[in-house]
Amino acid sequence: MNKWTEIIVGLVLLIGMGLIGYYSQNWVWFGKDFNFLHAAWIFLKGGIFWLVVMIGLALLIIGISELRESE
Q1: Could you read off the pLDDT of 7-46 as tens digits, one per residue?
Q2: Counting C-beta atoms within 10 Å of the first and last residue's C-beta, which end of the chain has fewer, N or C?
Q3: What is the per-residue pLDDT for 43?
Q4: Contact, 25 vs 35, CB < 8 A?
């Protein structure tokens, strides 16, 4: 794909999803709430949580490995 086409498609997708997330705050169909912005926020918070847990685990493993090498 052309580099300009990739940039334009990427921008259209980002702006489109941003608009869908913003306008979906009040969408209710058949008694179900379709608030995509809330779902994205929860997913982001979960991702940040697991990222911090994995960084902590990696640092712990590196520290133990360095302790074993220094003896």
Answers
A1: 888 889 888 888 888 888 777 788 877 888 888 889 999 9
A2: C
A3: 92
A4: yes
pLDDT in tens, 44-63: 999 999 999 999 999 998 88
Query: Which amino acid belongs to residue 17?
Result: M
Structure tokens at 6: 């990739």
Q: How far apart are CA 56 and CA 52, in angstroms?
A: 6
Number of H helices, E strands in the chain: 2, 2
Q: Tell which phi-psi region holds residue 49, choosing left (phi > 0), alpha (psi between -120 and 50) or beta.
A: alpha
What is the rounded CA–CA span in Å between residue 35 and residue 42?
11
